[in-house]
Request: fold
Amino acid sequence: MQQLPGGRLLSSSNPAPRLSLIMPMLNEAAGIQAALTLLQPLRETGVEIILVDGGSSDESVALATGLADRILISEPGRARQMNLGAQHAHSPVLLFLHADTQLPPGAENAAINSVLDALKTRHWGRFDIRLAGKSRWLPVISQLMNLRSRLSGIATGDQAIFVRRDTFFAAGSFPDQPLMEDIELSKRLKNIEPPASLATQVVSSGRRWDQFGAFPTICLMWRLRYRYWRGVNATQLAKEYRNAR
Reply:
């Protein structure tokens, strides 16, 4: 692990941040600067932003420098990246936000307050999601994702999972696997209690649905989840996912 300069580090005289926002990143040069710029007002309210790069080959790290409290360089793998960020977080509250997902536009601080309020009585939770893109099916897909999550108690990483730090580590953190790490963590956390489901919507990129088609992508994701439920190894599923794309 390597930490890059350009962020604020806590000293013994500084209070702990009210929330640590952890963002994994890999080759996000096209959008990382804009994504982090939207989060800058939160830093002034006591939110710590930890960016964890998985070995980007583009200018992602250079563009992000100065826009996060910490930039960590990790071994590749989103689960490993998010676990590393959690290990270096100073707050007792963690929020995992993908680089292509935004907190509710114009209401970022209200969203953080909702997380903190929810975790006063609950151990973990997630947001509803709205997919943004060109396909006319994305609103329907978003509604189905939210309904599925409410019925199953399982959250995906796109829904911005938040959790108490001690609960996260008690559940074993994200499993070190290349796919379905969010599903597996949700299953572990669900054994503690069902998630707090916030109706507030984060906005996530619908680029894979736009690029590969709505119905082929839906069929692919459901097939992979079904096979994972049947016990197929996540490494094998990741290969199938890459080949299908």
Remarks:
- The two ends are 30 Å apart (CA to CA).
